[in-house]
Amino acid sequence: CGRRARTEIRDVEHAVGPGGEAVSFVKVRIYTGRLHQIRVHLSHEGHPLVGDGTYGGSCPSWVPRIFLHAAKLVLLPDAPDADPASQDSPGALQAEL
């Protein structure tokens, strides 16, 4: 077994992809930051990422890459005056939304 990792699923929205397939937008919080943590945990729960063939996700033709995007990033140690960094979704993802 590997090292312990903790992922919290905070919000889920379901939609239909351009090819008619069911997709979900998931907001998660990771507490440990292990390599591939989100990919592994969602796949283990039976919900792999779109475009992630390595962990069992579908790879429809409209997906140019794994659709995983950090909307907010906070680096530790969490100083009281630290501001989280934010980033809009990449153009490829926005185009499909």
What is the percent of helical residues? 10-25%
Structural class by SSE content: alpha+beta
Q: Tell me how many strands there are.
A: 4
Provide the β-strand percentage band. Answer: 15-25%
C-alpha termini separation: 37 Å
Sum up the overall morphology in one term. globular
Provide the low-confidence segments as ranges: none
SSE order: EEHEEH
Helix count, DSSP H or I runs of 4 or more residues: 2
Radius of gyration using CA atoms only: 15 Å
Q: What integer is the average pLDDT? A: 82
Tell me about the biggest sheet? Answer: 2 strands, antiparallel
Instruction: Order the strands across the largest sheet as they lie in space.
Output: 1-2
Description:
With 97 residues, the protein is an alpha+beta fold. The protein contains two helices and four strands. It has helices at residues 37-44, 91-96, and strands at residues 7-16, 22-30, 72-73, 85-86. The longest helix has 8 residues, at 37-44. The chain is globular.
Question: Which helices and strands appear, and what pairs or packs with what?
Answer:
Elements: E1 7-16, E2 22-30, H1 37-44, E3 72-73, E4 85-86, H2 91-96
Antiparallel strand pairs: 1-2, 3-4
Short recap of the structure:
With 97 residues, this protein is α+β, with helices and mostly antiparallel strands. It has two helices and four strands, in the order E-E-H-E-E-H.
Label this structure with key terms:
97 residues; 2 helices; 14% helix; 24% strand; globular
